[in-house]
Structures are given as C-alpha cells and as structure tokens.
Write a structure and sequence with these properties.
With 407 residues, the protein is an alpha/beta fold. It is built from 15 helices and 19 strands. Strand 9 and strand 10 form a beta hairpin. Bound molecules: flavin-adenine dinucleotide. Flavin-adenine dinucleotide binds next to helix 1, strand 3 and helix 10.
Length: 407
C-alpha cells in the first residue's frame, strides 16, 4: 500500500514519520522549496507529546522545550491571577507525558530531520486530485502524475484536496487577529516572569506569553479584534507603536514585553466549519485541512499529531482495505476534532469580553472555577490530556464515552 501525503507541515510530517515507523510506503509532497520555520512559539499538551514520544522523539523534544508550572489567567489592569491550573510536575505524574512549550522552528526541525529524503518531494505543488476504483493520483502544477492507493490532504487551512474532493466552503474570518513576537529571554529577565503558560485578559484583548527554546527565548501573542483587512500569514509585520497603543490602560507587563520586541508579526485568525465528511473513497483529510480551529485552546497542531498516529495505525491494521481504514480513521477522529473547532470558537468570547460588567463577571467565574478545581485539572483538560492515540486506534480507549459526556 502506498500513501500520498499532500503537505509537509506538522501534520503531514508526523504522518510520514508514523507510516515509516509502521513500515508503510509513502511519498510526502510539499509545495515550498524548503521546510521553512516560523518565528513563533507553540504549546504542546500531553496528548500530542505522547505521539511524539511514541515516534522516539522524546529525548530530543525535551532538549529544546520548557515545562511550564501552571496555566495562569490574570486580570489586565492589576495583574491579579484569577485562575490557576497545574502543569509541571502534576501533568506528567497524572498523564505520563509533559506539557511543553516549544519554538516552532525547533519542532519543525525535529519532525523533518528524520524524514527519508527519497520520499520527500519539495517544490512540488499539487494541482489536482483524482481517484477511481483501483487507485488515486495527484497531478502537480508541472504536469507530473503521482499515483498511490490513498491520498491524504495534510495541506492546511486552504487545502486544495479539501476544495477539490470535498467542495466545502471557504475559511471563516473570525474578525480577530494575532500579533506576536519572539525575543531573547535576557531582554526581559528584569521582569521576573515565571515559567508558566500565562494569559492576561482584558477588554477586547488578551495577551498570552511563555518561554521557549529551553528558556533562552520568550514568546508572546496578543489576540484582539481588528478592522484592518489583514491576511492570514506568518510573515506580515505590524509596528510596535500600534500594538502598544492597544494596551493603553493595562498594567505594565505586556507593554514592557512588546517594547523589548524588535519585530512584530500579525495574522488574521480563521477557522472552518467542519466538512460533512473527511473521507471520500481513497482520499482523506487531516490537520487544518480537516479541522482548522481558532488558537484559544492551543490544539490545532496537537490534533494533527493525534490524527497522524491514528491514521497511520488504522492503515496498518486494515492494510487489506484502505477504504475501510480511512472510514475507521474518520469515525475515530471526527467528533473529537470537530468539537474542538466549536469549543475554540466559544472560547473566543471569554478572551474578548468588552464592558466592565462582563469583565467582572468573567473574573468572578474564573475565581470560582479556580476554587472549585482545588489545584486539579478541569474536565476539559482531562478529556484533552488523557487521550491516547494508540488506544484510540485500537478501540480500547474511552473517547466515545467522554464525548457523550460533553455533548
Ligand atoms: C496564532 C496561532 C497560534 C497557534 N498556537 C497553537 C498552539 O499553541 N498549539 C497548537 O497545537 N496549535 C496552535 N496553532 C494551530 C497550528 O498552528 C495549526 O493547527 C497547525 O500548524 C496545522 O498544521 P497542518 O500540518 O495541518 O497544516 P500547515 O501547517 O498549514 O501545513 C500545510 C502544508 O501543506 C503545504 N501545502 C499546501 N498546499 C499544498 C499543495 N497544493 N501542494 C503541496 N503542498 C501544499 C504547505 O506549504 C504547508 O507546508 C496556532 C495557530 C495560530 C494561527
């Protein structure tokens, strides 16, 4: 059985590594001339770290990640923390895997370095996707036809595989944007910022920040409404003055961090309605192509890691029938990822309340949640973190029961 993977992002690269580990033939097609790295941080919860460790990448991962001690949600004007949930060391003790913060460049290097270069086609853009009863093939923009048994669209939010085979609408502009920067930690050492996953929440704006690169770098992200016609892009820049101006009236920390940032990037935030199905015959979707979500739960990439292992494992288990394997993959993954698309959309409201009354009510709710959890995990964290992609693929997990309790 030969698998054609379109797109070598976090999802497609992890699928390639998973297939290689299970001895399944594949070709990985990427339009970019090089697997370039984006200057931004990424949060990796234990459900994703579990997949990376299963692929034998745990030791290397540990070298460049930081392990935050808590998730901390604080108030914009005083800096008071109103909700705190544990991470290191409790998350590892409870779920067997750490919660990490990483620089995306390090993560992409980790995933792409072990790829078999003879199976990786760079500078190759897929233009069309077709299939018949016996096989499936892509045609590239330079006219080459590449044939296999199965095609996986891991080609991101603007997926051509999704557009051609599933014909399911366009990305939805949320009206919000994310400004971000990565700086040397030395530049903010005088601020004494803890090694936590920090979120400061204000009116219409929130500020997320944490250390990456083993503590050597520091990553921040501001999320707020925009009226500018922004693109979705990892390379569009914004001025420091305009971002600092948005934090007028806030306590000092966000402004001090932004002031220390040489280059600020901005991207519009989009998600997509889940398509009716991720599978059509020999063609399936994964990652953002299947379930592009807003970043409020930091799960987009992590879900693509889960997809990758479950998909590779179902292809291994049902190698005799790729069509059955793909449908099985969909049945195991669709509800969880689609629910996260919706949950991430709902969280947008929490991050961007407006009036003083709404802010007070949010603070009160966060304080009471913090008290109720008594230093433990929330039910949503438990649902997310306890997911074991291998048990899910084998059907020995509790996911269907957990999902029923959510819906
Ligand atoms: C501001 C922000 C913060 C985020 N923070 C987090 C976080 O903390 N944790 C987390 O888990 N997620 C986070 N995410 C989400 C995460 O970035 C995405 O979910 C993840 O990168 C998706 O990976 P992917 O491999 O599915 O798609 P992509 O990374 O988009 O990769 C798709 C690949 O396909 C290639 N491609 C596209 N079309 C073609 C074609 N026609 N032919 C060949 N190749 C093609 C592209 O060049 C690309 O390499 C965040 C997102 C944003 C916007």
């Amino acid at each position: 059985m030969k698998i054609i993977i379109v797109g070598a992002g976090i999802g497609g690269s992890t699928l390639a590594l998973s297939l290689a580990q299970l001895g399944i033939d594949y070709v990985l097609i990427e339009q970019a001339p090089a697997l370039t790295t984006v200057g931004a941080g990424i949060q990796l919860s234990p459900n994703g770290v579990r997949v990376l460790e299963q692929l034998g990448l745990g030791e290397q991962l540990k070298q460049f990640c930081t392990e935050p001690d808590f998730h901390k949600y604080s108030v914009w004007d005083t800096g008071e923390t109103v909700l705190k949930t544990p991470l290191q060391p409790m998350v590892k003790a409870t779920y067997g895997h750490a919660y990490y913060h990483a620089h995306r460049a390090d993560l992409i290097n980790l995933l792409t370095a072990p790829l078999d270069s003879s199976r990786l086609l760079m500078s190759t853009r897929v233009a069309s996707v077709e299939q018949n009863e016996h096989s499936a093939w892509v045609t590239t923009t330079d006219g080459h036809r590449i044939e296999g048994d199965v095609i996986i669209g891991a080609d991101g939010i603007h997926s051509i595989v999704r557009e051609q085979v599933f014909k399911s609408g366009s990305p939805r502009d949320s009206g919000y944007a994310s400004w971000r920067g990565v700086i040397d930690s030395d530049a903010i050492s005088h601020l004494d910022i803890p090694v936590s996953a920090c979120v400061d929440m204000g009116p219409r704006l929130s500020f997320v920040y944490y250390y990456v690169s083993g503590g050597k770098k520091f990553n921040w992200l501001a999320l707020g409404r925009t009226n500018d016609p922004l693109r979705e892009s990892w390379s569009q820049t914004a001025t420091r003055e305009e971002v600092i101006a948005a934090f007028d009236g806030w306590y000092d920390r966000p402004k001090q961090i932004i002031e220390a940032t040489p280059t600020i990037f901005v991207t519009a935030l989009h998600d997509r309605e889940p398509p009716d199905s991720w599978v059509n015959g020999r063609v399936a979707l994964m990652g953002d192509a299947a379930h592009a979500m807003l970043p409020y739960h930091a799960q987009g990439a992590v879900q693509s890691l889960e997809d990758a292992w479950v998909l590779a494992r179902t292809l291994e288990l049902r190698g005799d029938s790729p069509l059955v394997a793909l449908k099985h993959y969909e049945s195991l993954r669709y509800d969880r990822a689609s629910l996260l698309v919706q949950q991430s959309r709902s969280a947008e409201g929490w991050y961007h309340v407006d009036t003083p009354e709404q802010i007070e009510s949010r603070n009160a709710r966060f304080r009471s949640t913090s008290a109720r959890l008594e230093g433990g995990f929330s039910p949503q964290q438990h649902w997310l973190y306890s997911y074991d992609a291998d048990s899910a693929a084998l059907g020995t997990d509790d996911e269907w029961r957990a999902l029923r309790s959510w819906s």
